[in-house]
Amino acid sequence: MKDNGVIVGVRVSHDRASVDQLETAATDSQRHAVESLLSRPGVEEALALQTCNRTEGYVVAPDHETGLDALSLFTHDISDDVAVTMDHEESLRHLLRVAAGLESIVLGEDQILGQLRDAYEDARGVGGIGPLLEDGVTKAIHVGERARNETRINEGVVSLASAAVRLVDRECSLDGETALVVGAGEMGQLAAKALSTRVDRVIVANRTVPHAEHVAETVDVDASAVALDAADAAVEEARIVVTATGSNEHVFDAETFAESGETYVVDIAQPRDVPADADGVPGVTVYDLDALESVTEETRAQRRRAAEAVERLVDEEFDHLLTQYKRKRADRVISAMYESAEQVKTAELNTAMTGADFDEEQREIVESMADAIVSQLLAAPTRSLRDAAEEDDWSTIQTALELFDPEFGPESGDPPAAIEDVAIEDIPEGMRDEIPASVLEQLADD
Q1: Which of 52, 202, 203, 307 is catalytic?
Q2: Binding-site residues, please?
Q3: Site feature Important for activity: at which residues (predicted)?
Q4: Which residues of the chain does CATH 3.30.460.30 include?
Q5: Annotated binding site for substrate
Q6: Where in the chain is the domain with CATH 3.40.50.720?
Q7: For the domain bounded by 160-287, which CATH number is listed?
Q8: CB 244 within 8 A of CB 251
Q9: Is 0.70 surpassed by the pTM of this model?
Q10: According to CATH, what is the number of the domain 6-150?
Q11: How far is CA 315 from the centre of its chain?
């Protein structure tokens, strides 16, 4: 697989999209999304990141338009003012910002870093990760770790679950109350732990009861586990319900809450576990992802100073990432150049030594001299190619690839160019001053 494509991205996230629009953009699973993207024409690599407040897709394609065509998987039913498309550099910078927690509803929240790791593993598991996304995603994860280890970006409320508890705590006293947590995944675990500091009892409901029991065992208050089909009965015991399952259908009907009395429901599932009309049941208040914005805005204000430091960190690491890509592309050309020179050197040595009466020591001297000549001849072009990559002089890189890389371009079956096959006008101007005059004269004579 060649690494001369571009990354193209698209995102549908909480800053523009409603909960309904987020649901529309989401696919069955990250792995399925990656498999679908890889089946599109021209797509060589793919990544999908789906959380409760974002759906994002990234592909490596030969050009921007090909990438956008593939990413219509996420946007075909989404209006243009909601979906944001990103070019190569925008995609990379955004990935770094996402991992650092700068794009989350709760600024600096920790969960997104684990979710990005999961997305990376899902994509890698179905062959979606190649050289471009490998460097981009691993750099993003590194940035996310640095942001949390070196700044105070994740102090205070760091999860949607914590924000949900704070939201309800404003409306009523939770002391002595019972809370129901529906779902035993990561968000359910976080909700149970956050609630355990405010209520006297926690009930955990889940389709797989042992998973619910495990969550119940991790909290420091009276806790019990029930099956998901017992959740309706548990609603009557609870003052606060936090639901965070991965179900594709509603877990509750509005009628479930008809006899529950004063109940606060926080639905942080994607798609929703609770229908929107449940908010109309007397005594029932339903909060969804959109409602969490009011709580998280306070957190954003508290963390703004830390975020400024993280922004500088992202800028620094983004520059390093671009330089890393440039060096790799230059190194590809340099490697091809040395391979070509090595083939010519080997051929000429074989010709010179055929029939010659050299002993072993003499052969080693001649071979060492040939190696030294190649190294000295290529030292200056090597520096020039690296400088060209640093300065975004891709015309020089392109010309060098055409000269030395047998797998580059339409004539991919041709062998590496030998010196007699190269015309002086084929040599990039940035390299000519570095090449010995005798070589240039030979090229001119040919």
Answers
A1: 52
A2: 51-54, 104, 109-111, 115, 183-188
A3: 94
A4: 6-150
A5: 51-54, 104, 109-111, 115
A6: 160-287
A7: 3.40.50.720
A8: no
A9: no
A10: 3.30.460.30
A11: 17
Could you tell me the two tokens for 286?
A: 């339903």
Structure tokens at 402: 């055409």
- Summarised one tens digit per residue, pLDDT across range 55-114 is 999 999 999 999 999 999 999 888 888 999 999 999 999 999 999 999 988 788 888 999
Please name the amino acid found at residue 182.
V
Catalytic site includes residue 52: yes
